[in-house]
Design the sequence.
């Protein structure tokens, strides 16, 4: 995503990392990445033009987190990983030892 953001002319900052965290979070719940493509071009098109699909079994709270974290507009994402962690009051995060 960092390279794609740079190629698309977007600023690369903490919200770029938040997008990547959202994609990892999505893959943990879905068992597959949020975007797919047979070629690099197809993958880039998917990231830029389509939204991830959520199955019926995907937890609703996780969907909200993923949608915000992977918003196409960086201004709509959590500002940082810390903000992502602090935002959903009903999700219990495991703290590092």
Sequence:
């Amino acid at each position: 995503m960092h390279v794609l953001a740079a190629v698309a002319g977007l600023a690369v900052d903490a919200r770029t990392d938040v997008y990547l965290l959202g994609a990892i979070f999505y893959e943990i719940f879905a068992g597959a990445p949020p975007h797919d493509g047979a070629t690099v071009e197809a993958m880039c098109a998917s990231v830029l033009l389509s939204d991830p699909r959520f199955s019926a079994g995907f937890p609703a709270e996780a969907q909200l987190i993923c949608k915000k974290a992977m918003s196409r507009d960086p201004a709509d994402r959590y500002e940082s990983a810390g903000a992502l962690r602090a935002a959903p009051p009903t999700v219990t995060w495991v703290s590092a030892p």
User: Anything to note?
Assistant: The chain is about 50% helix and 0% strand.
